[in-house]
Amino acid sequence: MDIIFIDELRLPTLIGIYPREQVVPQTIEVSLQIGTSTLNAGSSDDIRDTIDYAVVVERLRADLAHQHFHLLEKLAEHVASVILDDFGATWVRVTIAKIGVMRGVRRAGVVIERSRPSETI
Question: Is the pLDDT of residue 120 over 50?
Fold first, then answer.
């Protein structure tokens, strides 16, 4: 399996359980490792044969601009589902962090890994 990665993508979104967090967007940081085969793209040199990271970034920007999540865990599950279901990845590691939300803490967040269910024949 090959890995396409996106590191430290910063996006504004409504995230949190506190009243202020539900009306004032916060900048979060998203990093992805996307498991997929890049064999065809490596041979063809055609973007249609791989997962286009620019399209992934634009999709996440659009999604997070219009949704509110209470927990980073729920947001991470949403991102993992988008990557697996809509982009056809085999596996994904999603890292999501709030930046500077506590004194003395640069980032606080969650890392999840999800895989596409194995197909049974």
Answer: no
Confidence class for position 102, pLDDT limits 50, 70, 90: confident
Query: Annotated catalytic sites, by residue?
Result: 98
Backbone angles phi, psi at 67, to 5 degrees: -130, 155
What angle separates helix 72-81 from helix 53-65, to the nearest 10 degrees? 140
DSSP strand pairing (91-102 vs 26-36): antiparallel
Query: Going from the N-terminus, what domains does the chain have, and what CATH number goes with each?
Result: 2-115 (3.30.1130.10)
Q: Are strands 2-15 and 68-69 parallel, antiparallel or unpaired?
A: parallel
Phi/psi region, residue 104 (left: phi>0; alpha: psi -120 to 50; beta: rest), is left
What does 29-77 look like in DSSP terms, one character per residue?
A: EEEEEEEE--HHHHHH--GGGS--HHHHHHHHHHHHHS-EES-HHHHHH
Cβ atoms 10, 63 nearer than 8 A: no
Q: Beta strands 26-36 and 2-15: pairing type?
A: antiparallel
